[in-house]
Protein 1
Amino acid sequence: MRARVYVTLKPSVFDPQGRVVADALLSLGYEDVKDVRQGKFFEVELDGGDPATAEARVTEMAEKLLANPVIESYRVELLRS
Amino acid sequence: MRARVYVTLKPSVFDPQGRVVADALLSLGYEDVKDVRQGKFFEVELDGGDPATAEARVTEMAEKLLANPVIESYRVELLRS
Amino acid sequence: MTFAVVVFPGSNSDRDAAEAARVLGERARLVWHKDTELGEADAVILPGGFAHGDYLRTGAIARFSPIMGAVADFAERGGPVLGICNGFQVLLEAGLLPGAMVRNRDIKFRCEFVPVRVDQVDTPFTSACAPGQVLHLPIAHGEGNYYAPPDVVESLEANRQVIFRYTDRSGAMTEGSNPNGSVHAIAGICNAARNVVGLMPHPERACEAPLGSDDGRIVLASAAEAIRDGRFRARPAAAASR
Amino acid sequence: MTTIDSSVLERHGITPDEYQRIIELLGREPNLLELGLFSVMWSEHCSYKSSRVHLKTLPTTGPRVLQGPGENAGAVDIGEGLAAVFKIESHNHPSFIEPYQGAATGVGGIIRDIFTMGARPIGLLNALRFGSLDQPLARRIFEGVVAGVGGYGNSIGIPTIGGEIVFDDVYAGNPLVNVLCLGLARHDEIIKGNAGGEGNPVYYVGAKTGRDGIHGATMASAEFDESSAEKRPAVQVGDPFMEKLLMEACLEVQKTGALVGIQDMGAAGLTCATSEMSSRGGTGMDVDVMHVPQRETGMTPYETMLSESQERMLMVVHAGREAEVEAIFEKWDLHAVRIGHVTSTGRVRIHEHGTLVADVPAPALTDEGPVYRRPMREPAWQREVQKLSLESLGAPAAPQDAMDALLGSPIIASKRWAYHQYDHTVGTNTIAQPGTASGVVRIKGSKRGLAVSVDGNGRFCYLDPYRGAMLAVAEAARNVAVVGAEPVGATNNLNFGNPERPEIMWQFGEAVRGIGDACRALEVPVTGGNVSLYNETEGRAIYPTPVLGIVGLLEDASRTVTRQFQSPGARIVALGDNRGELGGSEYLACLHGQVAGAPPALDLQAERALQRLIIALVREGLVESAHDCSEGGLAVAVAECAFDTGGIGATVDVPAVDGIRAGFGVNATLFGESASRIVVSVAAARLDTVLARAAKAGVPAAAIGETGGDRLRFSVDGAIVIDMALEGAETRWATAIERKMARAR
Ligand SMILES: Nc1ncnc2c1ncn2[C@@H]1O[C@H](COP(=O)(O)OP(=O)(O)O)[C@@H](O)[C@H]1O
Ligand SMILES: [Mg+2]
């Protein structure tokens, strides 16, 4: 099984990386860029094939390690592989 | 318009961050974790509403700034907003 | 007295912290992160560095190290704990201090000496300072932009838990004196019990004048003094605690 | 089985003559794997086939030299049983195609060379060259390289203590990233890349081996399957965390005495490590690729042997002490695996699951490669560019305008935008703040300290490679001397174009001759270095750019000075002769758009006397500050002494240099770049002593002014030509690069 965990800064948290990328795009002449937010994702490959268990386990990993709930939110997506 | 650009290291390029995360998950007892790869994504908000133009422009941004084709590959996804 | 300095894989200021203690005439012991006991320790330092490469988030993996149980227990018993830079980040991830770190405002790593104002002197690591004293300390971090939700920041301020702030040389907070974008120019905080302190600047790298400043001495010296006269000491481990 | 035809040879970069030689050395035709081994070991990068004959002429011995060229790094004795271990390395091409990772992995590589020797790395320096910051591409490369240099060094916890950065369009398509690492070891801790002792086990430790860095051309050979034929990027992602673990573990293992030898696997990876260690030890090695930890599946022996995956080490361990070694690596979560053993055959024998797949005499790979005496020819334009006609330049710039322009030129401006991204405080040894002097580190437990500087002036070398290279040696040595340190060892990075062009080879030969002559005269032995050739894009070569790294010894680290004036009312003294030489100067380039003329003359005996004098003056506490005159000449040097002082200005009056034509006399006096000059500040009461000491040393010296006030004021022959507020000048100088880098918004 493969799953993806998408982690983003909560909307209330200022995203310095997104801001720097937006500025860079503007200076390259992309004047229609209004905002950029940067996030990260983890592609986790698991042994064992039960989707429901996999999703539960990956969600647990996200809660425990992959995201910091003070500043980040996450979303888990199961991939067919 | 909103679009997302997903950027990952090419499969042949070693991803040290993914390996460290995988090791951490293993040592937390997630022994079914076989591999982790880490990527990043950019959520770009654009003025103007034509999907085809937006996609073309964001693809150009990815080529030019958001990804380095030498070691990374990218994928553009248009979001309805 | 003895400082226990925890060594995580990727710590890089562990020996600097031990050396600083030695310069002050105190003892320091390095404790490996896989150990589960601190051993002899009057105060604990979580040092600077890049534990586990900081690859996931700063401090995120280190908080699971076996030694962290003993550190939490020591803190719980009122023992003085100091997290410096990466050590501060570990304390945040471990929940021993509130809040989190994001990338510096301009996303660049930044290393330079900056003025740091001591706002509270009733912690083990500032008790020898004068209130409002401005220390000249180096920073060296890419993720020192302190963030906490507004209600948390409010309660930190209300409870006088903001210990260090970035200011100018005169102690004034100005637009240009905040090097990383931290909320309320926060450079360091303590927990509610005031025995656990975290800060981004590096006092341990500023303990000898030839290095650019010896203002950092007062941080470790405060702890040594506070421990000697019994103001901040870990209570003995309660055998019944389990 | 692929037959080795001319197209296979071509893809391996092996000429027909080289192939004949391989057959002679083997006594038979090589198989494809063996051909691969020869191709990487006989590459320019590993074999120095074009440069070797020249490098041989460098002075490499001296009473302090513990290790000259040939090992992973050089080492010099610095007293008290201690050794300074250092080397410089380039990562130019990778930094062009992926600036962050290219630079980061360059830092990683040179750090491994140092701790491999048993030395703890204590400082990093970098010499960087980029295109003009007016171009977006150059800005992007600059930004990425600086972030990458910092990203690796900061993380691993080695302070970056100095460097230099130059911007010029010739580097637009070919930036230079040269990194120097300095380490410290006790003499008896130094360990070499030797495979001694038949039967001793050979261990592999560190990152797993992937298909990194195997050249696309060689990969296309029919022997390999489709997937491996995919073009592999020539850049890898650095893993400073792995390297930090490796460094700590290796330093711990080295202390046990259980190691016979150790070498990192950099260029040519396992092939280079096995053959070089065997050659040095006069032994052989049997290894089985089956035991090599692999990151990807289905790797062939060819791929495994040629991989250039980062952060890997090869070790020979004393038989019987395996468990001890393994335990230390386990502690650091690294798994050392045994991949073979040392033999007395003198041959590198590669097995795959027990089957012999390659069998080559080690010296054939390392020592018996081709050596070329490539044709050299002075470029037809060489004499032409050395002609400088001041008359043709038009009117000289007004001195005050020129000063303004020079202080804001990225070449002269403060490099703080870059070095604030480097941790210089970790390790608590750094005793000169960046931007104020050479990198200076103290040595804990000793009174001693070390100063290091990297310098090179591509413009001078373009105009005259022989003299330009000598000037680079002189400047690097002078920069460590001004902090009071005695130059004790040199390393060098030779960045040139395509050596197959006789003009480039001539530049190379001249530069090496210049380095040799200068190092001999200054008695600074060369203990190592690096050669980077083929630095060109679309047939346009960079300026010939030798970069010199010089290490100096401070006997008492508490007796050192920086460039900054210490107090108002001190006397400013210029040491050395001002000849008003404008050839190749920043003044000419910045204000008249010219790179022309002969570079400044250099009298090595005068240089040596000057350096001896300044070292003595600093050691005896006779000067309050000292700064070398380089780009921008005397006026810029004095201004730099006033910057970062909290507002100590200067008033200076100098005599005009005679005989400068076309009204350029004043500018030549102020901004000419004559070599062998130092600006010092001296307490008024010590002025006579200092002047007397200079006279005794045969060094021209003149009191030219006084520190203090909040202005920078220069007169020539009594007439005021520059009068500006210090604060404004300092802001301009301090923020020039930042302003170029600030994004439009
Ligand atoms: N890439 C760099 N990394 C660190 N420090 C740098 C770098 N470039 C310049 N510096 C520092 O800035 C100062 C001025 O550099 P430079 O103009 O080359 O000085 P000098 O003319 O004395 O050689 C030196 O202290 C140098 O170490
Ligand atoms: Mg220089």
Note: The longest strand of chain D covers residues 120-130.
Protein 2
Amino acid sequence: MSKLVYLVPLLPLIGFLINGLGRKSLTKSLTAIIGCGVILISFIISLVLFFEVKAGHSEVVTYFDFITAGNLKIPFAFQVDQLSVVFLLIITGVGFLIHVYSTAYMHEESGAHYARYFSFLNLFVFSMLLLVLGANYLIMFIGWEGVGLCSYLLIGYWFKNPEYTAAGNKAFIMNRVGDFGFLLGLFWLIQQFGTLNYSDIFSKAGDMKINDAALVGITLLLFVGAVGKSAQIPLYTWLPDAMAGPTPVSALIHAATMVTAGVYMIARSNLLYTLAPTTMGVVAIIGLATAIFAATIALKQNDIKKVLAYSTVSQLGYMFLGLGVGAFTGAVFHVMTHAFFKALLFLGAGSVIHAMHHEQDIRKMGGLAKRLPVTHWTFLVACIAIAGIPPLSGFFSKDEILAAAFSANTVYWVVGVIGAILTAFYMFRLYATTFLGKFRGSHEQEHHLHESPKAMTWPLIILAILAAISGFVGVPAVLGGHHELENFLSPIFAGSVKLVHDHHEIAHSTEYMLMGVAAGTAILAILYAVSKFSKKPDLEEAQGFGRVLQNKWYVDELYDAIFVKPLKGFSGFLNAVVEKSGIDGIVNGVGRLVNYGGRQLRLLQNGQVGAYILMMVVATLVLFIIQLFV
Amino acid sequence: MTINHYIFLSVALFCIGIIGVLTRRNMIIIFMCIELMLNATNLLLVAFSKMHYLAASVADAATTAGTDGQLFVFFIMVVAAAEVSVGLAIIVMMFRNTHSIDVNFLNRLKH
Amino acid sequence: MNPNDVFITFPELLVWFPLLSGLIIFLLNKEDQVKKLALTSSFITVAIVVASLFFTDKKYYNFNNVSYFWLPSLGSSFALMYDGMGRMLCLLTSLAFPLAFLSSYNKSYTKPNSFYGLMLLMQSGLIGVFCAMDALVFYFFWELALIPAYFLSSRWGGERRIQTTFKFFVYTFAGSLLMLIGIIYVYLHTPDFTFSLRSFMNTKLPTEKEEIIFWLFFIAFAIKMPVFPFHTWQPDAYEQATPSVTMILSGVMVKMGVFALIRWLIPVFPYASQLFANFIIILAVIGMVYASLIAWMQDDLKRLVAYSSIAHIGLMCAAVFARDESGMKGVMIQMFNHGINVIGLWIVVDLIERIWGTRKISELGGLSNASPVLTIFMVVIALANLALPLTNAFVGEFLMFNGLFSHGIWTTAIALFCIILVAIYTLNMVRRVFYGETKRENVLSLKTIDVNVKTALVIVVLIILILGIYPKPMFELTQDSVDVFMSKVKGLF
Amino acid sequence: MIAIILSALWGVVMMFSGIFFKRKSTAGIIAILGIVALIFVSLLEYHSYLYLPLDIKGMLTFSAFSQVFNLVAFICTLIYFLLNASEFEEVGNDVYEYYALIFFILSGICIVTSFNTLLMLFLGIEIISIPLYILAGSDKRNLKSNEASLKYFLMGSFSTGIMLMGIVFLYGATGTFNIQAMHLGADKPTPMVAIGLVLLLAAMSFKVSAAPFHFWAPDVYDGSPTIFTSLMATIIKVASFVAFLRLFDTAFGKMHVQWQLLAAIIAAATLFIGNITAVFQQSVKRMLSYSSIAQAGFMMLSIFALNTFAKEGIILYSAAYSLASIGSFAVLVKMKDYSFEGFNGLRKTNPFLALMNTIFLLSLTGIPLSAGFIAKYYMLIGTVKNGNYFWLAIFAVLMAAISAIYYFRLIQAMYFKEGNAEAKPLSTTYKAALVITAGLVIFIGAFPNVLIKALYN
Amino acid sequence: MGITQLLFWLLTVMTLGSALMVIFSKNPVHSILWLIVTFFSISGHYILLNAQFLAIVNIIVYAGAIMVLFLFVVMLMNLNESSSPVKNKWLRFAGVISGGSLLLVMIGALKDTESMQKEVLMNTGNIGLINNLGIVLFKDYVLPFEISSVLFLSAMVGAVVIGKK
């Protein structure tokens, strides 16, 4: 059966081709069926694979040599193991739901564009599957770039609008900055290990000493790639802009799947990272910083999608914190739960926007609870989940990360908890301003307010259920559970777990205390937020420090000032001065010199015999002197 | 007399000719100076021929060494005569067209 | 068939056939006749090359190598060899011309017969360069490819064409004359006084001389490629020449330089090329960044493409001098792929100019509303240009960077900086030209994207995708040349 | 030997036929007959079917080298006649005399290429020069022609004086005029020999118009009637080069290293001045005269190199350069306007002339597959082989690159510039001759062996 | 210091002096006359060297024929002081300087080299006599002799071509 793994990415590709080539001829419904159908089938296959792997045989399926250069052989191979199937399920599952959702959400689009949308979406799923299935870093990189491309295409889906396309460029280019590091890391890997296959590399890396310079370098460079892809400091600014794309796209790409590619990559190469504690420290700090920093920004955003975007960034920060402190399972766990509730949040937001006729400013909403019951309830579930209130999923995953952070370094934990409080606060600020209070929109908006169609609500409901219960696959031992996910993934992380066995186990009492503090403070924050914003939301422009937050700490402006402008100026200088008058000037100068020489030299030919003979005599004289006295 | 007397004499004569060519603008004079140069060479040739003759006649009295030098002079005179005839013809033609014998009068051809 | 009796070898066939058809075309004067004949002949050439790909085996030696005395007194013999790299580049050449013809098929030139005739002469010259095994023959073809290029691009093209082409000509001519001196010098030191590549390789020059002669060769090739800072002729020439000529210039002729580095320069001067490798790599890398930065500033599509191609060539040059096996393979297939991609770019640019009547990015906009098809082609080719995985350029660039890495991490880092820059300028171009609101109405009806241009573009895109997903054939094709090269430079580092 | 006699005799024949035939056009026919006979005879001589048992006391020696060169010179002359026969009548009334003088010149050329004593060299050069003074001034009404003639005459006879002084000093030092009997050693020359050498170098450089003794050339070439310019600039010049090479190879060959530097300097100067000055010229005729100086610079390389490559090369160069120059001068003659603008758009008005001229110009530039390339190539390989002064070769090629500037300027004018250049009507013989010339240029370029092998029969 | 030396010095002074007069005298006719004087003194030298034949020929050909030809021409053009132009003095200066330095260089190169002390046989030795020269001329030098006829022929033709109206 696992020979059939190639079908998993292939089907979306086929969907892409059919929808892309036949976009003129296909009817919308047909497009929708193809678009969703292929994903559904690959979801089913992934399920089968999952159970196979659970039954306990994971394997590497090789198809053909992609690159063979001297001793460097890179096959086109897929790896089916615990980690990849988990991601397979997330991608295809959530992906399928989002596809279904999109069929309704994108319905106003004309046929061709509709098909274009679905083909891009399928292409994205294809590349994402490639990313997680690849059995070596090159295939991963192919998927890595592929998802980047799709996000570029989908952000700029409404290509008429220059801001949107600009956002697409920004996303792609920032990802390129990440790829810069990633590629460099790959080359270093090749130089170090002579291969890119996971299995060979990890087996070779096993017997390298801790903090080997090469390993630190490689892991850091790979991490740069992850920073770009998963929108961490300093390369996170593209993600909020990426909200320009259609909301389901934001749900799928910029919340559930693509942005977690970095997490996947580090989890995949966990051994290398555990061998390079220095890098681990960097990862943890970056993650923590991102988590808190993004959370602060999210406090003051008024665009519903922007809030969610920054919360995504911050949640990703948590995942990296988890990775940084060695809680790989926790990170993957959080990826899963986050995929559910964040997708749910985005889809809910989408449903709201749909209902409000593309109004995204929460200050113009309010009191939608009655009008959009399904959306409201599902949204609430998601908010509770992300806020980390037991027993919903977010609690378990976040708690696992925080616990690990605590055992690594108390400061991590403190900051992490503060971040969690902020999360709870801004999420419920959003919830309250959107759904509670009374409606603040215009009249025809109010007149048209209605619950979204079934195709949109059902995915919400399913995701809500998942967001609610998915936490129970990872109930920690303290709460009498035995963490199925950890057992399932243990083969992947076995190597690194062996290395960090000295990881001192923290007492149960402490754990209870930690959970209590986290959950309690979160609840307090929620209550404060709800009470504060359900009655009188802050409609006026933020002042003072709030303004700074609202303008995202002016980071974009900063980057513009230190990177973009100088570079532009410099290349302008090169183009105008160095190229034109410098290099080309020299070349033309030679020509002009020859011409000038011709004009001057011919004056020697002054037409007077006397002068000619004189010059001949002088020349003879010179020859004499050279011949006789030199 | 030793040969260097003759060498210096004719070289001097030769250079006088050159100086004449360089300093005068009257083309006839210039031409005459060229003749002067030729005569310098002739003189030196004869001197050399006698020198070689002397050197050779020590070995055998009936040598004809050096004869060729004098014959060369003869040929030079021949050529000179021919040149003069042509040259004067050209000069006359010039004078006919432009009533001047100034070499610098003609410099349409330049640069 | 029996491998030993050959009527005519492939290289000869490939050199003479375009030459003859070119000469025949000179005599015709009906435009459509001329076009048909030119197109057919170019396709036949493709067929020949494709056929030749089945005779790569050792036992077909006589099909692929020819050599007979030409100037015995000079020890020069008309020797052609047809090895992997030669095949690959001949394939590129033979593909480039049909593409060029197709894309401009319904465009009428003044004096079509001389245009197409010269084109085919150039083709024969180029193929000769790629097959020559004898230094003098190599030089001959090197010039023979230049002369038609000169006439083509100064007879047909923009209004500043004469000066720019002339600059290009004198520049390259001076370079190749320097190379001639180098050839002569090496020849005089060959053990058996022949110009054959083999004896050139066996010649051991005194080191201090080798250092000088190396530069004589390198400058010629550097001008041809062109490598920073010898590149200034290129953007003007590309801008001014007529598109189908530009395709050949940038798609094929530029490869002559890279080819010459691999076939002649480094194997003949292994010591000097090792000595100066650092310097040249740094030069090339600087050139890459420099050209990318300038390409960013360009407002003229043609100039933008020109500078981006300078950047790509710089990478090839650097990778060649890194002399790492994987890098070499990268160079090999990148020579082919870059040719195809840049031709695709030119086709699209030419279309845009023909349809919208301008090449200025600032004046264009929202073309995708008018012509989604063109947009799709352009986007695919642009993605190939920035070496996105699963497009043909990726494999090559990946390997080249990898080869460069073996030379040093910092140079690689600087060079890799270009993948960011290339993304910046390519995507900006795509965005400003194709996206947004329509700025300018098309002067021609879109009917002018007629079937032959579409065919050309489809061919390009297919090659891009197929070689992007399954590059293996190219690797196998060029394996032997890489082995020869590596064996030459192995001993030294 | 017979060639010398025959050419001299045919000169006389031409003179007298001037009395019997009144029609100018017959002169051309008779001349062509004569030159054909000359070619035939010298072919027989070359294959030694014909031999004149005449004791010339070692005044001349006819080597294969000189004979091959004579053949080349004769063939070039034949082509020259075929191309310009009609133009002779334009110049003046004394057509028969012009032909007669040219035949005398030919006998002079034969002497100069096979001389063995300085006396014969002197006589030969005079026989070449004196008729040239006349031909230069043959357009009597035209002041430019007069001026050219006068300048050529004055400076020519001056250089004769210089040369004689050189000969005298050599005689003084060695006691003989026979260049083979001089036996000058390889070590540093005595002052007398040195002076003789330098003076002879100067005089010969003057004859071949090598800088800085070239000043006469542009003016004289420019002023004289174009057809005679093309004679002077090609056949005469290469003949003088052969004499130059023969003299310095036989007399001073052993002490080559002692005077190489001078030759190198002269070659470099000639290349530089010739090429650079040609760039700015506005009249094609004058450009071609400067270009002939530039080409002389390349030929000087053979004097510098003085090895087998140089000797074979000078033959090739003579053929290649003479043919190409005669051709493009012949094209020039047919043009109404000699300025560059006068050639604008010749492609449209007269594609045949344009194509032919392009071939000649490409050959002069030294593009492969044209004779010019092989010739230049031989010069360069000789220079590099020589071992010293490697910079000279590089300098030479850079100058060759510059030469492309002015040659291609003409091609540009003909092909890429708009305009309507006017050319005189062309006779069929002219066209045929032009095609033959172009064919030879390409043939020699492709198979130079034919010529090289002839040197070693 | 015998009579020969005396004569030698005398003639030398005459030669050089008259040569200088040739180039410095304003009037062309005068310079022609001075040139004739020079030729005579050179013939004197020939006699001193016992090259009688050349001495005679020199007088006949040069002083007789050529100079008369010059004289004719000058008379024909009836030139006088005024019409004989002068170069600007810088050029003349340069001419004198360069000519003089050429002289100096040659002298400087040639003086005190041992071969310079070779004796020259004065007023004896019979190679200069007409019969010896004649024999050699018509035995060994017959070819150049004939060739020179070609030279004359061409010169004649040329003179005619140029000279006739």
Note: The two ends of chain C are 44 Å apart (CA to CA).
